[in-house]
Predict the 3D structure of the following.
Amino acid sequence: MELKKKKKSDFSAISINRITAGRYREFSKKISKSHTLTLELMMDFFEGANISPKNKYLMNHMGFEHRLNKRFDYIEELLRRMEKEQLRPTHDKLKKFFEYAENEERDRKESLEFEKRMFEQSLKKDRITQYDNYMLKENWKKERNKVLKLLNKAKLEKPRFGKAYFKLDIEQSDLESLKETLNKKL
């Protein structure tokens, strides 16, 4: 007989706003099979966790947590915007810089390989090699630049009486070093 009493329980009516009752019915379908079981689970949860909607401290804590989450979202959005607007151009500039450095390194290696081949050809003393020709041209360019610099220092002097002449405007030490280098090469 006790089984029959347990199965058949007494129900009590509670007046709830129609909109709230509709929300509760939808919520109850997600949680359990009956409205009573859903309500019991909710009350057990709140009592077990010692949570009350009227607790000021809890509500303040939840509000603080909500505001903190919003700030974190703002910071995340700010960082993403900074990455797009500021770090991308910097990244692109650095990438171009490293590509330029790689190209310079490659060009330098090619130049060294070319000079190495020219030098190897110069080791053959039978004839004038491309390397010898290349070195002669380079030396000629250097000497030509020195002479041009010296000629640029020459100024035309026109005295009142007599012929016009050119005057070199160089230091005595520069003239002495020029004489020494010319004497060494001979």
About this structure: Residues 56-122 form the longest helix (67 residues). The chain is about 75% helix and 5% strand.
